[in-house]
Each structure stands twice: as C-alpha cells, then as structure tokens.
Amino acid sequence: MDAEVSTLFSASLLSVIKQLPCFMSQLDNMPVNIKDKLLHLMSKRGLITDANVSKVVHKRTRILDLSESEVSDRALQRIGVCRNLRKIDLNSSKGERAEITSEGIHALARSCPLLSVAYLRRCVNITDEAVVTLAQSCRQLVELNLGGCPRLTDESLLAIGQNCRTLRSLNVSKTQVTDEDIISLCMGVCKQSLMELHLNNCVLLTDESVEAVVNFCPRIAILLFHGCPLITDQSRQALEMVQGQGSKMRQVTWTIY
C-alpha cells in the first residue's frame, strides 16, 4: 500500500508541474514537504521563475538550484525568507546569464548569511561590489565559483582573502585576475583551508601566481591553470619541488607555452 501511495503522490506532483499556472494560487499554502518535492522537480525542469520562486521556497530551504531556470535579480530579491539557505546554484547551463547582476547578489548575501556554497559561473554582469558583499556577509563560504565573470578584478580576490576563512574551493577561470590578486588570496585568511583553485584562461597570470599557491597554501590538492599564456616551465619546476616535499597534490592541469 505504501508503494501505491508513493506512486500516487508522485503522479499528483507531476500533474501539478504540468499545469503549474493553474495551481499558482495554491502553492503558498502547501505543506513544506510538498514544497520541497515541487522545488526539486521544478529545478530539474527549469521551471522556476521570478514570479513563482517565492511560492516554493520557505524558511527551512537549504538548497536552491536555479541552473536550469531563467531568472533575474527579482528572483534573488524574493527569497528573503530563506535564512537557512546553504547552497545556491546559479551556474548558467545555457550560455551567459546576463539577468543576474550585483543588485541580485547583494540581496542574496543580505538574506542568506549561512550560505556556504555559491555557484555563479558565467553570471557576466556581476561586479567586484557583489563579491565583496558576498564575502563580507557570508563568512561560512566553502565553495565559490566565479568562473567566466569577466568584470571581476583585484577587489574581489582581496575581499575573499580577507573574509573567507573556511573557503576550500575557488574558481576564477576566465577572469581578469592578476598575480597580485592571487598572491593576496594565498596570503589571506583562507590559505590554510584552500584545497582547490581553478585559474584556467586567466591570461594575465604568470609563474608568480603558481609559486604563491604552492608555497602559501599547504592543503592545495587541485590546481588548474591551463590556457594561461604567460606561465612558463618555471611553474612545472615549482610543482615538482613541492611534490618532492610530500605535497598533497591530486590533480594539476596546465599548458606550457
């Protein structure tokens, strides 16, 4: 009987999903467990919008996956109830995401101080101001993906280095970060926790960045820096040296020009 009830429940949820506009007025009053199921199904199908996101999240929502959905700053401004949110995925699965700007990230950071995982890959219109607010407001960040955010500069890395003490994974691929930025990051409060760093296609970086990572971040295990034309064989030598000293490196990819 339990299996039959479960099957009926799933069928009912799918029916709601297929006729979502007809049920919009009823979503607010649905029990939390049903909202969670709907949120999961809507996330996987890319059905979350600026208009309906506030109807399916609640104060105990911990994960919000918007990677398949077309949303804007308005969606982030409408999730203020999610004070316990731990993870948000705004990685764009369909090219660049232009409708998320610093205004939306500001709202997210202020509403969700317990955020530990933030995926913002290819959110091309976020700026340093947004990352500074995120780093200062969400002090428990563990994973931060900023790959493909071309407007980010030294201010972002400086704020991360000064505030994100528990950060383990950072992606700043395809940004305009410089050696000075990476050095400040590696000498910041996250140097003892940082385990994974993605620097692919950061065309301004030189061997100084790689040397800073391997010398100041003792737990670094994954370091990716292919597509950086100013990095030379000197970086390979630095990596070989730390490997000989018992480094915990598990994955390294790079291109030597």
Brief characterization of the structure:
Helices cover 42% and strands 10% of the residues. The protein is α/β, with parallel strands linked by helices and 257 residues long. Helix 1 (2-18) packs across helix 3 (32-44) and helix 9 (179-186) packs parallel to helix 10 (207-216).
Keywords:
257 residues, alpha/beta, 8-stranded parallel sheet
Report on the structure:
The chain is of the alpha/beta class and 257 residues long. The chain has helices spanning 2-18, 20-27, 32-44, 53-56, 73-77, 102-111, 128-137, 154-163, 179-186, 207-216, 233-244, and strands at residues 63-65, 87-89, 117-119, 143-145, 169-171, 196-198, 222-225, 251-254. It is elongated, with a radius of gyration of 21 Å. The protein starts with a helix and ends with a strand. The mean pLDDT is 89.
Low-confidence stretches are none
What's the shape? elongated
Count of discrete alpha- or pi-helical segments spanning 4 or more residues: 11
Strands across the major sheet, in which order? Answer: 1-2-3-4-5-6-7-8
Task: Give the helix level as a range of percent.
Answer: 40-55%
Gyration radius, to the nearest Å?
A: 21 Å
Largest sheet geometry? 8 strands, parallel
Range of strand content: 5-15%
Give the CA-CA distance, first to last residue: 65 Å
Mean pLDDT: 89
Classification by helices and strands: alpha/beta
